[in-house]
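Field reference: "sequence" (input) and "structure" (output). Example, Diguanylate Cyclase and Two-component system sensory domain-containing protein:
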Amino acid sequence: MMAGQPASLADFLPRGNDEYEVFVARRSEVVDFDTAIDAIFEATPIDVSEEIVEEVEEDTLVLFQNGRVVSVTPVREFTYLVDQITAEIGQTATVSLANLRFPSILVELAGGSFEVISASSNHPVLLFTTISRCIEAQSWEQRRGQLRVGVQYLSRLTDTGDPQTRAVYEQLAETDVEVHVYGMPDKIPPSALDLTVHGGRSADFTQNWFVSYQSPPATTIAFIAHEFEGGRWRGHWTFDTDRVEQLTSYLKTLCR
């Protein structure tokens, strides 16, 4: 856990970081990176390389942490996930939470802190959107527990907001998950989404993007990203129960 009490949501982001590298082992001729692999890591400090490894049964993503292998993921599995999120961001499709699962490579990246650049505040970061959707999908699958989400502006969940984000929460409204949503109260989401709404105008509400899910006794996971000037984001996700509980406790103070 963090030492002392956090003064803001940004304080939940770890300052240090391990060194990560992604290696793509190809069965046959090396080609340009798959669009999904390139797109999700291009805005991060994670190095990506590839070469032919005839011994692998299929094209494979290998994640190194401080020089040690920590995850092996089939490229097809990873590409399938990221392509769904890319289509959602491009507003060419609505994602189905039933089809999303956390790939092991993203599970093993938990605990790190990643800085990425977004083209604009309205252009979501692919890596962080993928993490958010995977957490939402986990809550949808369990169909119970508590989900706390920061969307910056509550209008994202209205008819005139982001239709893809709204579609996700329409799916969650069909479950018993207790959903709390935080953001600037520029417009109130419809009652049909069955949300507990928390509006505010401080930086905690307007400069942070978070998704925190708890379903006792076993499931705790949280993602948080802070937006800096110039489209720069720093984000972090964790499965650590103590850290998720500390974040939840802080979010509850914003409800007062």
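The chain has a mean pLDDT of 88.
The domain at 18-253 is CATH 3.30.870.10 (Endonuclease; Chain A).
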